[in-house]
Automatic annotation (TrEMBL):
UniProt protein name: Retrovirus-related Pol polyprotein from type-2 retrotransposable element R2DM
SUPFAM superfamilies: DNA/RNA polymerases
Record-annotated Reverse transcriptase domain positions: 1-228
PANTHER family per record: REVERSE TRANSCRIPTASE ZINC-BINDING DOMAIN-CONTAINING PROTEIN, REVERSE TRANSCRIPTASE ZINC-BINDING DOMAIN-CONTAINING PROTEIN-RELATED-RELATED
Domain of life according to the entry: Eukaryota
Pfam families in the record: RVT_1
Upper classification of the organism: Eukaryota, Viridiplantae, Streptophyta, Embryophyta, Tracheophyta
Length: 342
């Protein structure tokens, strides 16, 4: 199943599909949110949809229908159904399991097959929304999205929907989500789902929120563990990430580390250049962060130069950022970083 996912899943989904990267979601989402704080740009909006207990609520009949839709053989579907529908569960009370009961829906988290099945389930939502967009002439794409027909970014159950900030498009998204919920069992959690509006769409705020019943969201927005902003990333925006790193490093101060171990740690820090050398050259093989960052930036540049066909981000770049094979937009922080790689 894994080997054929890239032929079944649309480019806007990047979870668990070979050859695709979680970084594409973050890079492209950041590009689309750029300028949300400006009044002189077209009104636009994004929906960050939280699916309530996503893995646990997938209807089994819908899963089998989805596999049939994607052309899997009947025998294969029966094998999948046998794996998904037959397990029994017990409840752990005071450290001991009690009783067994059969499940009625859902995918087991931890099962290596579940992520691939869930990606196929989410692809049905993409098909529903795309069909509605094609049949409804009233949908308006988000600024800088129509050329690549981009209206969503999805990584497993992390879902972003993009459109122009106007009622017809928002109503289409709502209807599509409701159709998907009725079929699959996956429902949007209204308390945790948010509508993020650009500054130029402020006049439509109340009417759009009334259509969705979502909460209003604001930038910076946390997406896949990273902050998304309307402008340049600042040091304060990175503080939550730095605090997590510091918390892990402080673990080295614990009582489980002997005095000799602490001395060795200090020596390692003081000889950082040696530490970052490969093991076969006498170092510890710890990566130099600066060199690693340059390597990752270079990889992104190579994907653009080679026109990576598996990347929705690269496709977007070619349509909206590149002119005469150059990086033309100085407002893109991602480009400024990549352009400085030497």
């Amino acid at each position: 199943m894994r080997s054929i996912l890239d032929t079944l899943i649309s480019p806007s989904q990047n979870a668990f599909v070979p050859g695709r990267s979680i970084g594409d979601n973050v890079l492209l989402a950041q590009e689309l949110f750029c300028g949300y704080n400006q009044r002189n740009l077209p009104p636009r909006c994004a929906l960050k949809v939280d699916l309530r207990k996503a893995y646990d609520t997938v209807e089994w009949d819908f899963l089998k229908a989805a596999l049939t839709l994607f052309g899997f053989p009947e025998q294969f579907i029966q094998w999948i159904a046998e794996c998904v529908t037959t397990p029994s569960y017990s409840v752990c009370i005071n450290g001991a399991p009690h009783g067994f009961f059969r499940g009625a829906r859902g995918l087991r988290q931890g099962d290596p097959m579940s992520p691939f099945l869930f990606v196929l389930v989410m692809e049905v939502l993409t098909l529903i929304l795309r069909q509605r967009i094609e049949q409804n002439g009233g949908f308006s794409y988000h600024w800088r999205c129509e050329a690549v027909q981009l209206f969503q970014l999805s990584f497993a159950d992390d879902l972003l929907l993009f459109s122009k900030a106007e009622p017809n498009s928002i109503q289409l998204f709502k209807d599509g989500l409701m159709d998907f919920a009725e079929l699959s069992g996956l429902q949007a959690n209204l308390q945790k789902s948010h509508l993020i509006l650009s500054r130029s769409a402020a006049a439509s705020r109340d009417s759009l929120l009334a259509i969705l019943d979502f909460q209003e969201g604001h930038l910076p927005l946390r997406y896949l563990g990273l902050p998304l902003l309307a402008s340049r990333l600042s040091i304060s925006d990175c503080q939550p990430i730095l605090r997590k790193i510091e918390a892990r490093i402080k673990g080295w101060e614990g009582v489980m580390l002997s005095f000799a171990g602490r001395v060795q740690l200090i020596k390692s820090v003081l000889s950082a250049l040696q530490v970052c050398r490969p093991v076969n050259e006498g170092g510890l093989g710890i990566r130099d962060i600066h060199s690693l960052n340059k390597g990752l930036m270079s990889r992104h540049l190579w994907r653009i130069i080679s026109h990576d066909s598996n990347s929705i981000w690269v496709s977007w770049i070619f349509h909206y950022r590149l002119q005469n094979f150059g990086l033309d937009d100085s407002n893109s922080e991602g480009y400024l970083g990549m352009a400085q790689v030497d």
